[in-house]
Amino acid sequence: METVTTCFKLTFTQEQYNEAVNYVTDMKKHPKRVFWIGKDQQSDEELVYSVIAHRILSGFYNINNAKYGNAQVLAMTNLRNDN
């Protein structure tokens, strides 16, 4: 199986940012949730950006609406990882 590292440049609204902050704040109340696996060294800001990216990319792939993706996914670069 091949592996590719992909970097997305996304745009988001203040409302999306606020929702992500609220989500991370709520997750702090539940330290044993799957959400925390591999994230114990991340700052709050990194966690917030991770939530935003996850929601944008999940929505982009699940709603099949190219206009949505074109509006929020500004750029994408890919690099093949040779193992």
Short note summarizing the structure:
By secondary structure, the protein is α+β, with helices and mostly antiparallel strands.
General description of the model:
With 83 residues, the protein is an alpha+beta fold. It has one domain (3-81). Helices cover 49% and strands 20% of the residues. The protein is built from three helices and two strands; from the N terminus they run βαααβ. It has helices at 14-27, 44-63, 66-72; strands at 3-10, 73-81. A two-stranded antiparallel sheet has the order 1-2. The longest helix has 20 residues, at 44-63. The chain is globular, with a radius of gyration of 15 Å.
Shape: globular
- Number of H/I helices: 3
Widest β-sheet, arrangement of strands: 1-2
Q: Name the helix and strand elements from N-terminus to C-terminus, one letter apiece.
A: EHHHE
Low-confidence stretches: none
What's the domain count? 1
Number of strands: 2
Distance between the termini: 10 Å
Global Rg? 15 Å
Given helix and strand content, the structural type is alpha+beta
Measured as a percent range, the helix fraction is 40-55%
Largest sheet: 2 strands, antiparallel
Mean pLDDT across all amino acids? 85
Strand content: 15-25%
